[in-house]
Known about the structure:
mainly alpha, 8 helices
Amino acid sequence: MDTAAAGGSLAATSIVTFxxxxxxxxxxxxxAIVTAPLEGGLLWGALAGGCLLLLTVGFSTAVVKGDSLLxxxxxxxxxxxxxxxxxxxxxxxxxxxxxxxxxxxxxxSLQGKWLxxxxxAVGKWLFDFLVLLTAVASLGDEVSFSLMLLAxxxxxxxxxxxxxxxxxxxxxxGLASLLVAAxxxxxxxxxxxxxxxxxxxxxxxxxxxxxxxxRFPDKSSVDLS
Length: 225
C-alpha cells in the first residue's frame, strides 16, 4: 500500500475513533448527573472527555477545512526528511502539497461514508465496553450503567498516553481505581480488569500472530522492504 495513503488513512481512522471515544464520557457524564452522583475521579474524567472532544473537533475542522496547519506540518516533515535522508545518502523529494493532496483524496473518498465511519467508531468502543461490562456483571456487582461507561471512557483515554505500549500497566491500575469509584468492590475490580484486558488486549495480539503464521507459513517469504 502506498505510504502516503496508509498514513492518511490511519490519520482519518484515528480522528474518527477519537471523536467516538471522547463523546462517550460527555454523554455518560450528562446522563450520570441525573441518575447517580459523580465521584472526583469520574467527574474529572467527564470534564477531560469534554475538553478532548472539543480539541479533537477543532483539530479535525482545521485539517479538513483549512490548509494552514497541514502546510506548516508539511514544511516540518520536508525539513526533517531532507536532513535524515542526507545522513543515509538518500534524496528526499520536497513536495509542499503532499499532505494537502492526500487530505483531499481521503476526504473525497469518504464522501457519503461518514455515517458508516461513525457507526463503526461507536461500535468499536461499544463492543469493547461490553467485554468489561460482562466481566463486572459476572462477579455479581450491580453498578450504575452510566458510571461504568464513564469509568471505561476515562480509562480508555489512558491508552493514548505513550508511557507503555498499549497502556500496559497504566490502564490496569487506572481502570481498577475508576471501577472502585463507580461502585465495584476492590477485589472484583481487579479481577474484572484482568479478564477485560485478557480478552480486549492480549487475545487480539495472539490472533495477529496466528494470522501471520497462516498467511506466511514460511518466514523467509515475508518481504518487509
